[in-house]
Design brief:
The structure is a homodimer. With about 260 residues, chain A is of the alpha+beta class. Chain A contains 4 helices and 10 strands.
Chain lengths: ~260, ~260
DNA sequence: CACCTTTATAGTCAACTTGACCATTAAGAG
DNA sequence: CTCTTAATGGTCAAGTTGACTATAAAGGTG
C-alpha cells in the first residue's frame, strides 16, 4: 500500500509546519486497529462482564476483554458484532438486535507492548444468557462477576472502568436498561438492572411510577402475569417501548444535590 | 514492522473460527489513523465551526474539518491538541486548558476514496476567538457559521452533525457551556450559549435561578460588574465553577414531555 | 432633557416531579 | 395456617420548573 502524500493535510504542508513536509509513508508507522468489547449482563442480581482467557503471550493466562482485528473491508462496528458473535456463539441469532455502543478509542502508543495498536472500544448490554460456548480449548470465555474480576490484560481494566461509568450514566437518561432484560420482562427485573449497575436500592413504587409515566419506556403486555423468581405476587409483563431517551431522566439517588 | 501472530486472539485461533488461522500480516491491510476536529464557538449569537479549505485532491477547494495524522509516538488526544494548536495558532497559549472531548471513531472502509483511514473525531469548545492565523496560503482556515456551511469533504458532514448533537446533549447535564465563555463572563453570555446551540429562547430569570442554585456551576466574582454589549443594566461577572455535571440537568425546553 | 429600548435581577405562583411512606394483594416456604 | 417476599395502589410534603410580573440600570434618540 502506498500512502499518498497530502491526505487531508496537503495544504498544510505549504504553511511551514514543524512536521515533515509532505506525507512520507515511512514517517508514519502503520497502525493496527482492533475492537475491544465490554459486554455486560445482569445475573442473579449481580453485574457480570464477558471475559476471555488469553492463551498466548503477552499476558498469557490473563483475562481480557473479547475483541479482535478490524478486517480490511469492514467497519469497526461490523468487526465488533462479528467478534461478539464468534466469541459467545450465543448471540448469533440476536447479534443484529443487541445494544452495541461505541465507547471511545484508546490510542496510547504504549498500550500494546509489541506494536502500535489503536483499539475502538464498544460496550454491549445483553440479557442473562447461558455460558458462552467453547471454553474446552485453550481459550476460555466466561461471565465474570464485575466486582470479583482480577487484573486484566493490556489497558482493558481501564476500558472496562470507562465502560462501566458510561453504562451507569446512560441508564439515567436513556432507556438502555431494557437492553439488559429479555424481550418480555417484569418491572422488578428492570428495577434490578438499575439497582445492580448503580449499586443502590430503589424504592419499588416510585420506580414503577417513574417507568410507567414515562411515555414509550415500556409497553404493557396482554397475557397473564408470570412469577419472576417464584416468590411474591406475580408481576405483569412488559416489552421495551419505542422511546430511546428519558425526559426527564431517572437520576441516581446519589446524584441528587451535592 | 512485523505484525505478530495472535495479537489478543491467538487463543481463539484454536477454536475453529471462520477467519484465517493465525494472524497473517498480509491479510490485514495497515490502517492510517487520523484525528478530525469539530471546533465550535459562539460569535455574535451564532454558532460557528472552524473549517479549513483543502488545497489538494480529492475534494480540492472543499471545506473540511481540521485534523491530521496521528504520529507514531503520540496518542490520538495528543494529535488532536497538536493539530488544533497548529491549525489555529490562536490556541497555542490555551491549548492545554480548552475543552477537548473524544466524540467517536469513524471507520467506514470507504470513507476515504484513496486508502483505509480510521479517524478519531474530537469535539472542542472555545470562547469567541479572533480569526485563525494563516489563510494567506493554499490552506485557509476560518470560522464558518454552522447553519451556513456548504458541503464538507469526506464524511465530515456526518462527523460535524454528530458533534453538534453531542454538544447539544452535553449542555443539558454538564457544565460544558462555560467552555464557550471567556474566563470571566456574565450570565447573559452563558445563557446565550444555550440559546445559540439549542436554537431556542430561554426565560432569563428562570435560567439565572437554575444556574445560581446549582452548586459549583458558576462562581461569583468580586469586582464591579461590566456591560456585556453596552446596552442594558450591567451584569455581575462569574467564573466557571468546580462542578462538571449538572444534577438535576438543565433540560431543553423541547425535551420536556413528549 | 424626557422617554424608549434593552438587559439584569428579584420575586410570585401554580403545575409537575420526586422521595418517603403506608396499605393491600398474591404468590411460595415452612 | 402463618411468615416472608414481591407487586401494586395510594398519599403527602418537599423540591423543581415554567410562566409571568415588577424593578433597576444602562445606552440611544429626539
Amino acid at each position: 500500500m502506498t500512502v499518498q502524500r497530502d491526505h487531508k493535510w496537503g495544504a498544510m504542508t505549504n504553511r511551514g509546519r514543524r512536521e515533515p513536509r509532505g506525507y512520507d509513508p515511512a514517517a508514519f508507522e502503520p497502525f493496527a486497529v482492533t475492537v475491544d468489547l465490554a459486554v455486560f449482563t445482569v445475573r442473579l442480581g449481580r453485574l457480570h462482564v464477558l471475559l476471555v482467557e488469553r492463551g498466548e503471550e503477552p499476558y498469557r493466562g490473563c483475562w481480557a476483554l473479547p475483541g479482535g482485528f478490524v478486517r480490511p473491508r469492514e467497519s469497526a462496528g461490523q468487526a465488533a458484532r462479528r467478534e461478539l458473535a464468534e466469541e459467545t456463539g450465543l448471540l448469533a441469532r440476536s447479534a443484529g438486535a443487541l445494544h452495541l455502543e461505541q465507547l471511545r478509542t484508546y490510542s496510547d502508543p504504549d498500550r500494546d507492548p509489541r506494536m502500535r495498536v489503536v483499539s475502538v472500544a464498544y460496550a454491549a448490554l445483553v440479557p442473562d444468557l447461558p455460558e458462552p460456548r467453547g471454553g474446552g480449548d485453550a481459550a476460555r470465555a466466561r461471565w465474570v462477576e464485575f466486582g470479583a474480576r482480577g487484573p486484566l490484560a493490556f489497558d482493558h481494566e481501564h476500558i472496562l472502568a470507562d465502560a462501566y461509568d458510561r453504562v451507569g450514566a446512560k441508564l439515567e437518561y436513556t432507556c438502555l436498561a431494557t437492553a439488559f432484560c429479555p424481550p418480555e420482562f417484569a418491572l422488578g427485573e428492570l428495577r434490578q438492572v438499575y439497582e445492580t449497575v448503580w449499586g443502590v436500592a430503589l424504592d419499588r413504587p416510585n420506580f414503577r411510577r417513574k417507568v410507567l409515566t414515562t411515555p414509550g419506556f415500556v409497553q404493557a403486555l396482554q397475557g397473564p402475569p408470570r412469577r419472576t423468581g417464584g416468590r411474591g405476587k406475580p408481576a405483569a409483563l412488559y416489552r421495551a417501548g419505542s422511546a430511546t431517551t428519558l425526559h426527564p431522566p431517572l437520576l441516581r439517588p446519589e446524584g441528587r444535590k451535592t
